[in-house]
Amino acid sequence: MAVAPVIPPRLSQPSTIGKKKAYPFMLGGMASACATFFTHPLDLTKVQMQTAKTNTKSTGQFFAGIIRTHGIRGAYDGLTAALLRALTYSTFRFGAYEVVKTKWLPKDPSMISMLGASAAAGGFAGLLGVPAEVVLIRMASDRTRPPAERYGYRNCIHGLYRITKDEGILALYRGVGPNVVRAVLMNSSQLASYDYFKRILLSIKGTQDGPVLQFGASFLAGTVATTVCAPADVVKSRVMASKGGSESIPHIIMKAVKTEGLPFFFRGWTAAWVRLCPQTILTLVFLEQLRLGVDILRGDKKL
């Protein structure tokens, strides 16, 4: 009786048993873009509060003033730049973190491993997203400037063109340092803490993964991220809103601290939290639903 020959496995196709498949790279950007439509007015309020030289209004009063003066349309100034940021910065920070977590980290990674992976992904994403961030900050804060000093960008593409033409291509990377620092802090405090809080909540007897648990974990992650990122976020907004680059970052910080005090670093914290917490919740819940859809299409889960 002939014995069938044993064919060795192909080395070019390693076994995927026990390995989790990575989700499509674009899911994070798509989820962030969906959330942006709901939260952009809050982002605009935060930016205008951070770039205002003096402000005695609460977040609610400031937002009401925007609506009263410029209407609903005014609350969406810079929306195209916000969507561009979502499709560049957010796509890469979520996508890179997912790849690292899936390919290189163990099934139950430590908090330190998750922090390292999310921080690295955030740093690279921060570099990629600087041009969109510069245009967004300028478009969102334009109405707070005297008419003669306004930029008047029609949309994000016009803004990128005007900055490059009038100030040179390097102006698109004004504030790259604070933006990368903020991106590292944001990703590590938001994504790693979300995974951590989700794991903690799932360890409670009787809890199941779903929108309610995801809401709770993302709410906590959004609060942590707002607090950790506040100082870098304020500095980034001040630097990017300025024109010409005549003042260095240390000079801008020292001048602000001298005239406004140390609370300068937490200017607009409430506005940032009111914006970032819903943004975090919506983005992560949207992301979880997109992942569920991918799992269903793959046949890993059923409706």
Walk me through the structure.
It is a single chain. With 303 residues, the protein is mostly helical. 69% of the residues lie in helices and 0% in strands. Helix 4 (111-128) packs antiparallel against helix 7, helix 5 crosses helix 6 and helix 7 runs antiparallel to helix 8. The longest helix has 31 residues, at 211-241. Residues 6-18 have low confidence and may be disordered.
Q: What are the segments in which pLDDT stays under 50 over at least 5 consecutive residues? A: 6-18
Q: What shape does the CA trace take?
A: globular
How would you classify the quaternary structure?
Answer: single chain
Mean pLDDT comes to 86
Q: What is the alpha-carbon Rg in Å?
A: 22 Å
Number-wise, the strands total 0
- Fraction in beta strands: under 5%
Number of helices: 10
Task: State the major sheet.
Answer: none
Structural class: mainly alpha
Proportion of residues in helical segments = 55-70%
| Topology as a string of helices (H) and strands (E) | HHHHHHHHHH
In angstroms, what separates the terminal alpha carbons?
49 Å
Family: Belongs to the mitochondrial carrier (TC 2.A.29) family.
Subcellular location: Mitochondrion membrane
Pfam families: Mito_carr
Membrane topology: Multi-pass membrane protein
